Amino acid sequence: MSKPLTEPASLLPPLRIGYESGAADALLAGPDVLAVIGFGAADVPDDPRTLRVGLRSLREAPFEVWRGIAPVRSGRHEDLRWSSDGEHMFFAIEVDEAAHGGIVGAAAHAYRMLTAFVGASGTPHLLRLWNYLDAINEGDGDAERYRQFCDGRAQGMHSGAQTRYPAATAIGRQDDVRVLQVYGLAARTPGTAIENPRQVSAWRYPRQYGPTAPTFARGMRMQSEQLLISGTAAVVGHASRHEDDLDAQIGETLTNLDSLFQQASMPERQLGTRSLLKVYVRDPADADAVEAALRRHAPDLAGLLLLAGDICRRELLVEVDGVHHAGV
Ligand code: 3EB
Predict the structure, then answer these.
(1) 0.90 exceeded by the pTM?
(2) Residue 148 CB contacts under 8 Å (≥ 6 apart), including other chains
(3) What is the CATH number of domain 16-325?
(4) How far apart, in Å, are the Cα atoms of 22 and each of 25, 52, 195, 255?
(5) Among 214, 219, 220, which residue's Cα sits nearest to residue 202?
(6) What's the pLDDT tens digit per position in 82-131?
(7) CA–CA gap between residue 278 and residue 94 (Å, rounded)
(8) In angstroms, rounded to a whole number, what is the distance separating the alpha carbons of residues 207 and 235?
(9) Cα of 114 to ligand 1 centre, how many Å?
């Protein structure tokens, strides 16, 4: 008789992510606070647990706050900063493109640093990454900055199994600051990567989208039953849909989210009181329409952050990411 390889795992208490207003200093005073992320003009004190993302918030600008499940330690390692509660790690790195010969070198550096640091830590499983860079659609064809970013990211990522990628977002800032910003979540306990049956896995995108396919999973289910939702847009198969049609792109994005929830076996399949979303719109003039459509679909959302950002394919007008808690 052999013993089962794994005991039935009991659920971990969840990482608590919320959008909170107030002064960052006061938020940082909490002993369980892992991260306070500000947007646009937000005032963010210098602390290893903070980051100010240069995306303009199109509504009031709350902070994205992560609270851990045990007291938090934090520190710096070269140009990376981090915090950890023993189970979860927040990390952030900002890389000046010029100092690394451009966006390819900056992305390779960021990913070399963060994969080495996370991999050697007590929280070695990379679950989720957010990537923000200026002028993401600048340059034509394979010279486009997003494609160059994908190239550097793949160079810097530890070559592991080709399908064990974290969930991710990659969005363009509109601030003329050539600094790559990457932040993310790693954990002691591995997650389960989720792909979307309506979409070709990003790492299998055909050559037409660039020489180096994007390296991310569509979602990551944490052991605590939270679903980390990657940037999701009107992509079906590998193709963008509904060029120049904002409403149709939103509808397709919501259908993609439904499909992802189903694939992730989320007991509650609806966006709602347990969902927190970030919505990126290329044209700030679309903000009202996008918000109205989302609130119609999910009137009781726990939180919605509306940000001005460029989506990595020029024809896409809107993208959504977020976190959803399965609950009990
Ligand atoms: C897409 O479906 C839209 O390069 O990290 C979404 C999420 C997208 C993450 C990334 C890109 C990324 O391909 C774009």
Answers:
(1) yes
(2) 102, 103, 104, 107, 139
(3) 3.30.1330.40
(4) 9, 15, 36, 34
(5) 214
(6) 999 999 999 999 999 999 999 999 999 999 999 999 999 999 999 999 99
(7) 21
(8) 16
(9) 19
CB count in 10 Å sphere of residue 160: 11
Domain boundaries, the chain: 16-325
Secondary structure letter of residue 199 according to DSSP: B
Q: Which atom of ligand 1 is nearest to the CA of 149?
A: 4
Whether the Cβ atoms of residue 123 and residue 188 lie closer than 8 Å to each other: yes
Q: How far apart are CA 311 and CA 325, in angstroms?
A: 26
Closest residue (by CA) to atom 6 of ligand 1? Answer: 231
Ligand 1 and 214: CB distance under 6 A: yes
Q: How far is the CA of 209 from the centre of ligand 1 (A)?
A: 11
CA distances from 82 to 66, 89, 150 (A): 13, 7, 24
